[in-house]
Amino acid sequence: MADLWRTGRRNIPGMSTPPNPTASNSEWWRNGVVYQIYPRSFADGNGDGTGDVMGIRARLDHLVQLGIDAIWISPWYPSPLLDGGYDVANYRDIAPRFGSLDDARALIADAHAAGIRIIIDLVPNHTSWDHEWFVAARNAAPGSPERHRYMIRPGRGTNGELPPNNWTAVFGGSAWTRLPDGEWYLHLFDSSQPDLDWTNTEVRQEFVDILRFWIDLGVDGFRVDVAHGLVKDPALPDLAATEGILESALVENHPHWDRDGVHEIIREWRAVLDAEQAARGRDLMMVAEAWVHPASLPKYLRPDEYHQSFNFDFLQCEWDAGLMRAAVDRALAGAEAVGSTATWALSNHDVVRHATRYGLPPETDWRAWLLDGPHEVLDAALGLRRARAAALLLLALPGSTYLYQGEELGLPEVYDLPVDVLDDPVWENSRHTRKGRDGCRVPIPWTVGGSSFGFGTDGAWLPQPARFGSLSVEAQTGDVDSTLELHRRAIALRRSHWVGAGPLEWSSKFSREEEQVLCFRRGEAICIVNFGDEPVAVPAGTVMLTSEPLTADGRLLGPAAAWITAG
Ligand code: GLC
Known about the structure:
Blueprint: E1 5-7, E2 33-37, H1 53-58, H2 60-66, E3 70-73, H3 101-113, E4 117-122, H4 132-139, E5 152-153, E6 176-178, E7 184-186, H5 201-217, E8 221-224, H6 245-248, H7 261-280, E9 285-288, E10 308-309, H8 312-315, H9 321-337, E11 343-345, H10 354-357, H11 366-372, H12 380-396, E12 400-404, H13 425-429, H14 473-476, H15 483-498, E13 505-507, H16 508-513, E14 517-522, E15 525-530, E16 535-537, E17 542-546, E18 555-557, E19 560-565
Parallel strand pairs: 2-3, 2-12, 3-4, 4-8, 8-9, 9-10, 11-12
Antiparallel strand pairs: 1-13, 5-7, 6-7, 13-14, 14-15, 15-19, 16-18, 17-19
Helix pairs in contact: 5-7, 12-15
The structure holds alpha-D-glucopyranose.
Alpha-D-glucopyranose (GLC) binds at residues 83, 86, 123, 189, 225-226, 289, 349-350.
C-alpha cells in the first residue's frame, strides 16, 4: 500500500484536543471549524425583518449541533449600512437594530458556555462617513489635525477640480470624492467609506484601544477586513491599469495594496493580542482578509503577524481535480514555510455561493453571470452534488475550515433577486453593470413554512425564494441524505479522524492514473473525491461517510467524495 502514497507537504502539527474557550495556548484555530454569521441575515429575534444578536442567541443550538468551534460575526456595529455594516460609525458599540452591548455580552457568555468562541470583524481601512472623526474632518479646515486622520488631499487641475490621481474604487467609479470646500477624500470602496490615514499615530492608537475594548468584552479573536490595504504610497502615484482586486494585488509595489508598511501595523496588533492572552489566560487570534497573491500571503502569517489568513486562491478555484490539488499544495507549502496552518473556505458574504458557482460551465465569470446570464446554463443539481463532495474535501484537509452561514444547508445563490430590492452599493456604483453580493446574503430559512421560513416573524429584508422552504433546517433535520446531516456527521467525524491526523499524503495511483480523482490520506483516514462522472473504486478500508450513496458494486459515482479508514 505504501507506494500508493506520496508524502505531500508537511502538515503543521495540530492539536487534537476538543475546544475549550477558557483554556489558553490550545491553538484551537489551527484545526477549528469557524462558522461565519452575516448578522442581518442569520436570525431575526425582534421581528423587524433584520437579523440581530438576540436571533443569534436563539439559534445557538443549531451551531452546537453542527459541531463548530467558533463563530465569526460580520460587522455588528452602528452603521448607516451603506455597505452592509462594513461602514462602521462607532467601533465600540452594537447597532441598535442588532441589539446592545449587553446582548453581545450575553451572546459571548452563551457561546462560551457551549464551547464556542467568538471572532468579530475589525474594519480598519476605512470608517463610515457617519463616524464622528469623519464628521469632524468634513467640518474642519484643510490641513487641520481632524483632516489628517483620513486621506484627504487637494485636487489636480487649475482649480483642484480633478481628483488627486486616477485610482478607482473596488465597487466602481473614482476612488476620490470631493468635499464642499474643494479637497478630495480617498475611498477604496464606497464613497461612504473614507480611508483612514495609517501614518497617523492617533489612528494607530485608536485601533489598539478598540482591540482592547472587545477583548475586555470577551471576544476571542478578530477577522481583519481588507488587511492588505491600510498603507498607501505617500506619493499617491497614478495606477497604470485598473484591474480587479486580486489581479491588481499582483502589481509589484502597488500604491495601495499589499505594501510592506502593513506588516508593521500587524505586528503591533499581534503584540497586543499576545500580551492580552498572557495576561488573561484566554486564547486570542486574528485572521486576515488579504486578497493578495499566494506568493505574498505567507508574509502575513509570520509568527509575529496574523495567526491565519483566508485562502482566496482555493476559494476561486474551478471544480477541477488538478487545479484544486495545486491550490491545496500551494496553501500547505505557504503556511508551512512560516509555521502557520492553511485555511479552507468556499463561500462568504462577498462571493456567489459555491453550490451555484459549481453548477456553471467552466470559466464562467460568476460575478458578471448574475446579471448577464444566460441563467439557463446553470445546473443547480450538479452544483449541489459538487458542493456536497467539496464539503468532505474541505473538512478533511489539514488546517481550519471556514463555513459561511447556509452552506451547511446547500443554499444556492439567489441569482434572480429583482433589481429593485438590491442593497449592495456595487449595483449603483457599477452603474448597474454588476448586480453585487445580495444573492448570497438572503436570510436563512429555518422552517419549511412561515412568512420568512422561520427567519423572523414579519418578513425578511431581502426576499427569500419559495425553494428555500425545502432547504430549511427543519426540512433537512433527521433526513440522513440531507446536506445538513452530511455536514453534522462530517464535522463530528472530523474531530475523531482528521484533527491531528498528521501530514497529507497524495495517492499517486489516483492522481496519476485518473485525472478526475483526488485521493489523499492523513494517518489512517483517507479522503477520495471523484470530480468526474465515471464511477471509481474506493480504497480498501471501512467507509465512514460518502457525499452520495456508493453504487451497488461499491464504487464512487462522481461528482462525489468518500471518507475511509484504512483497515
Ligand atoms: C471586505 C468585506 C466586504 C466589504 C469590503 C469593504 O472585502 O468582506 O464585504 O464590502 O471589505 O469593507
